[in-house]
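$ run holo --ligand "iron/sulfur cluster" --emit tokens
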Amino acid sequence: MDLFASLTEITDRASAAIGVTDLAPYPDEADRIRDRVSRGLHGGLSFTYANPDMATNPEKSFPWASSIVVVTVPYLTDGDGATGTRTVARFADGDRYDGLRAVLADVASMLDGAGHRTEIVFDDNRLMDRAVAIRAGVGWSGKSTMVLTPGAGPWILIGSVVTEALLEPTEPMARSCGTCDACIPACPTKAIIAPGVLDARRCISAVLQRRGVIDRDIRTLIGGRIYGCDDCLTACPPGQPAMRPLEATDDALDPSYILSLSDDELGPIVEHWYVPSRRMRFVRRNALIALGNTGGESSLGLLASYIGHPDALLGVHAAWSVGRVGGVAATAICEAALERVSDETVRAELAAAVAASRRGGVYAGETSAASLTDPEENAR
Ligand code: SF4
Ligand code: SF4
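-- output --
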């Protein structure tokens, strides 16, 4: 049995897909990244945007290697197809990467055993997971910008084993989304601005991973989400077979619970999330927005306790959330806070919150939240 056939046995056992590509560069991807950065569509995210030359030139990062073995592993389990209250996207509610890590380790181990140097790479600025997956033929490029695979659609994790073994490249997949465009209207923020083009400034998943103040017009659309967004995935027909609605559990992470924890308590709960500099203030910021959108009057006490927080980032979002809850009690909280809060950024948000709470929690753009910045974070 040749080496690739042996590797396929490993991936078959894990219901994973496997393909092989070489280390040739991706000039079209590099152009696309630069275009998105120049148009601001990257939304300040770094990842592959930070260094397009490195991300699209695997042969520069791995000069010793001859092949990239690409693996996609489905990550949904029974119950993931159920609708219901979710505050965390499915890929992040637990360590869904265990399966991918295990397959990659087995693939690397077999190659190592055959005498070939290997390196496991995923979520790494040196390699564009999506680009190598498409070139290796393990999936196709969806209009949602996700890689789609037969059977699991977009519900997959992608990883690679870069190796000095010279393996025959597999062919790109002859498949496309065709006439489907279901993900585009399904996006709550209209972040998919054209087929295959994402405006990360509006993508909830990206926004919740960013530093700083979140724009006010996006906050309402975030709804109860604290981390990630699955709407364009759940709308995707090729992913439907993977969404098994069995044994649904209602164990959504509660934003009030997050807001009651210390950093030490919160850290392990969000261990698998991308949190800038591992600073829990960003998780709390997201929880404040989610609680404002979903908590109702019973959450006012907790939200109000954050308005005078020494971290103005939290004060701003708490003020917004009180206004979002709206009503007489919310108005009174904001007016009282205006008497004692001196931070100008928080005060501006409180003024907007008073107006919104008088309208029953409806913001109508009284001041531009985009002008509210967080100098500490934006300077980095
Ligand atoms: S993750 Fe959510 S916000 Fe982002 S493109 Fe998909 S549906 Fe839109
Ligand atoms: S929803 Fe339709 S158009 Fe969007 S990625 Fe899935 S198959 Fe493609």
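-- notes --
The mean pLDDT is 90.
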